[in-house]
Design brief:
Strand content: 15-25%
Radius of gyration: 26 Å
Strand order of the largest sheet: 1-2-3-6
Helix content: 25-40%
Number of helices: 7
Distance between the termini: 49 Å
Shape: elongated
Largest sheet: 4 strands, antiparallel
Order of helices and strands: HHHHHHHEEEEEEEE
Structural class: alpha+beta
Length: about 240
């Protein structure tokens, strides 16, 4: 949707303009401002030079997130300095440092926002950060414990030596009972992988899997008394070879 830009807002968009994160209407407004205020072009150049020194983020945010985030950052920029143009030019080193700080904050905010979008899009709810970190590892591999109506996804990263479990179908265990994960290592020993937490309001269960993920050969789940067991006390509800 086209959005008119008030003349007074143009200066606040200079930062977003410098990193090419404005709409066509905003670009037109900023360029009109620069034509009327040529002294502001130095600030644009300093912002662009500072942006060139920042590392490119590993993830590209969706267009709506990128534009909205940078619009919010732009709206929080300081108001134009109320000083003579000559005095402002004399402070160019300070302006450059300010540009680097502003762009660094913007870049960090983008990465955080993108990570939040990616985490929130997994399964049905928001993933805890330790779980999301493993799920988005370059070497992440998924295996599924398929129990028919109920399923648990096991995601392992050998590079991180970690594994996590997620599910949107397990629901709550019966009163006085708990779902407990088990990890079988290369020696055949079965150790506790932790108790599944209560599902979130959206039904999501997500947690890091305890134990040595690197040596895990099988992951299973059983129903145990509340508080868990040192060793399985009932038949496994399901398992998967890794």
């Amino acid at each position: 949707m086209k959005r008119d830009v008030r003349p007074g807002d143009a200066y606040g968009l200079i930062g977003a303009y410098a990193v090419d994160a404005v709409t066509p209407e905003e670009r037109e407004a900023v360029e009109a401002y620069l034509r009327d205020h040529p002294e502001a072009r130095d600030e644009v150049r300093s912002l662009q030079e500072a942006a060139a020194t920042l590392p490119a983020p590993e993830m590209t945010p969706p267009a709506h997130v990128r534009s909205e985030l940078l619009a919010q950052v732009a709206r929080t920029r300081p108001l134009p300095p109320v000083v003579p143009v000559a005095a402002e030019r004399a402070k160019t080193p300070h302006a450059a440092r300010r540009a680097i700080l502003w762009l660094g904050a913007a870049a960090a905010a983008i990465v955080i926002a993108v990570a939040g979008v990616r985490i929130a899009s997994d399964d049905a709810g928001s993933m805890p950060a330790p779980v999301a970190e493993v799920m988005h590892a370059d070497d992440a591999r998924e295996s599924v414990i398929d129990m028919g109506e109920h399923k648990i996804t096991v995601t392992r990263s050998m590079g991180m030596d970690k594994a996590v479990v997620t599910s949107t179908t397990m629901g709550r265990a019966p009163d006085g009972m708990a779902y407990q994960m088990w990890v079988k290592d290369s020696s055949g020993k079965m150790v506790s992988g932790g108790l599944l937490p209560e599902p979130e309001k959206d039904g999501l269960i997500a947690m890091p899997l305890h134990g040595d993920a690197g040596s895990a050969r099988e992951v299973a789940v059983s129903m145990e008394p509340a508080g868990g067991s040192a060793q399985p006390t009932s038949k496994m509800l399901g398992s998967v070879q890794l």
